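Methods — Computational structure assignment.
A single polypeptide chain was analysed. Its primary sequence is given first, followed by the predicted tertiary structure written as structure tokens.
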Amino acid sequence: MFILADRLRRRRNRRPALITVLSTYDRSSDLAVKQTYLRLNRRTRRRLGLAITASGLVTVGFVVPPINFLGVSLISYLFLDLFSESLLVARDEGRLRANFMESLFVIALIATQYYILAATTLVSFNLGSLLLLGTQERVFKRTIRNALNIPRFAMLASSSGQSLEIRLDQLEIGDVVVVNAGSTVPIDGRVVEGLATVDQQALTGESRPVDKVVGDTVLATTLVLSGSLHIEVERTGEETVAAQVVAALASTLDYRALVAARVDEFADLTVLPTLGLAGIALVAVGPLAAAAVILSNHMNSMRLGIPLTALNYLDLIGRSGVFVKDGRALELLAEVDVVIFDKTGTLTMEQPTIQHIHCFAEFSEDTVIALAAAAEQEQQHPIARALKHEAADRDLNAIITADNAYEVGYGIHATWQDQPVLLGSERLMQREGVTFPAEHDALQAESYARGSSLLYLALGTQLIGIIELRPTVRADVTPTLDALRRRGLRLYLLSGDHETPTRYLAEQLGMDDYFAQVLPQDKAAMIEQLQAQGRRICFVGDGINDAIALKASDVSVSLQGATSVATDTAQIILMDQQIKHLETLFQMAQTYRLNTRFSFAGATIPSLLNVAGVFLLEFGILAAYGSWLVANGINGLSALSPRLIYRPQRARQPDNSADTVGQAPIEAYALPAGGAAPNSGGAAQ
């Protein structure tokens, strides 16, 4: 009793492993997490080692009886550790929990002198805990390794021109750090001196390195490939974008806790019925039958198997470049019957393609493109980038414009050779009194019929060119939509664009329906209308103007990228912005649901059969223990099956992979036989 009371006192302030890990997590460093996992691993490994030792001792005890006493003593020590914990929970919560049945499971084996079975049961308990903890640790470490690879030290610039190495936690806002080629940026800040090429693919999803100049923002964990930067510190430690990403990723583990809580809740409901049946068996059949009934409660196998299954799926999905912020989405995906796609930035690339250039008043295509690119020179929106890229591809001589001014909703005002330049919408041309040629109406109708939009260029009041822009469908869209159709899903297109181009794209992609000219605030209303008809909706958007729609849908998927992880309202984020992952997600959601049902059946059916056998067929201890082994085997197979079904394959690297330094390749997954494999191609960003 003294030993038991002492254990109760020692366990009074202990918290579950997951809560301990999350509460000790310092976002600016993964050291606390590593130390916590190390401590938990050591405790579990110690218990496992003692259980294995006890198994060996009681086995030898059959031949050498005195040694059997040592084995039973060690089993009793481990049992007291388990029993005191279950009593403490019962005292604090005022009810018996499922872990109490684990204690009774062991004590029933000890009381009936099945010492070897008692020892191997303790081995099984601790081995399962170690497996679950190891999987959880692997998921968490990958999070930190991928998203928080921040150095411990930084080079602080000084007035003397020398750099001083200091610890990262000693930096203050306004300090200037020096980052040279081959080094990782340790903070979020603004470039105040220097020029460098920076690889930020792991954080932002950009496939190509970008040039950083004075005034540009750089983010922690990005890699300087060439050049050197002096960066003024704006955010450090837990305030950086990378740390916010990790904080959001850490919430993924909360889903494991949620799954475990749901399983425990069900398992708790079986405690009193099991004790009641054991009492009946004690009176009607005898003590061995009562012990067999207690051994027929196999909920402990499900309490391990289902959370481990959830972690394995989240781990596999994370490896493929998909971040599940809310694990419940994995369950809900299996119930979705309608997938709604936002058009721009989701099915089509942000940057349009220049399809045709219609010239007037004897101006050439090169002049129209050069003048349009000059007017947009200071802009960075997708149309501006398309014009500047077209001018660069044509190797055109630069045209200099002045007084460039952007007017929201209309376009650009500029000056060239003392003449006003107008670049923008038809509405801008009409307001400024620009004269349209006779063929304009027919040209406009034909362009809209092709799904294009028009950009007008005028010099003075004379229209000199119309640039026809067509959205570029992502390379992985068509095979992905085909795969989703084969799954029986209805596909809808949602767009704020005009009716004609939206209908054209919907017909081109074979959508079941489409909605055009929908304002961002109206998207949620359309989703709710479909939900009222009994539909379960998955909305796929770019995460920028779709926040309301993402929240309204049953499952929300965003392609916005890693920098938005901490603030994006979507439940699932495609970090590499490729929708080809949707088919894998739906496939995994379906198998995940089947796995959890299989685990539930694997725990409950053997339990019920064995209880019936105790009363009707005089099943004993060995039969009950055998059914427990079967339940554990089923749940173990269910938990490990994701890694057997989804075979990791190295994804093909983008064309610029040779220029990317320090980035681990993302893994793709082969679907099981009969499933549609995701297309390996992706749209270059």
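Note: The chain has 23 helices and 22 strands.
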